[in-house]
Amino acid sequence: MSNPSDSWWRSAVIYQVYIRSFADGDGDGVGDIAGLRSRLRYLADLGVDAIWINPWYPSPLADGGYDVADYRDIHPVFGTLDEARRLITDAHGLGLRVILDIVPNHTSDQHVWFRQARDAGPGSPERERYVFRDGRGEDGALPPNDWHAAFGGPAWTRVADGQWYLHLFAPEQPDLNWDHPEVRAEFESVLRFWFDLGVDGFRIDVAHGMVKDPALPDLGLPEFRVLAGEDQKDHPHWDREDLHDIFRAWRAIADSYPDRRVFVAEAHVRPGRLADYLRPDELHTAFNFDFLRCPLEAAQMRKVIDRSITDLAAVGAPATWVLSNHDETRHVTRYGRSSTGVTAPLRGERRPTDLALGTRRARAAALLMLALPGGAYVYQGEELGLYEVEDLPEEVLQDPTWERSGHTVRGRDGCRVPLPWSGDTPPFGFGPPGSTPWLPQPADWKNCTAEANQADPGSMLWLYRTALRLRRTVPGLRTERLRWLDSPDGTLLFERGDGVLCAINLSGEPVPLPEACHLLLASGPLGSDGLLPVDTAVWLQRG
Question: Whole-model pTM?
Answer without folding.
Answer: 0.95
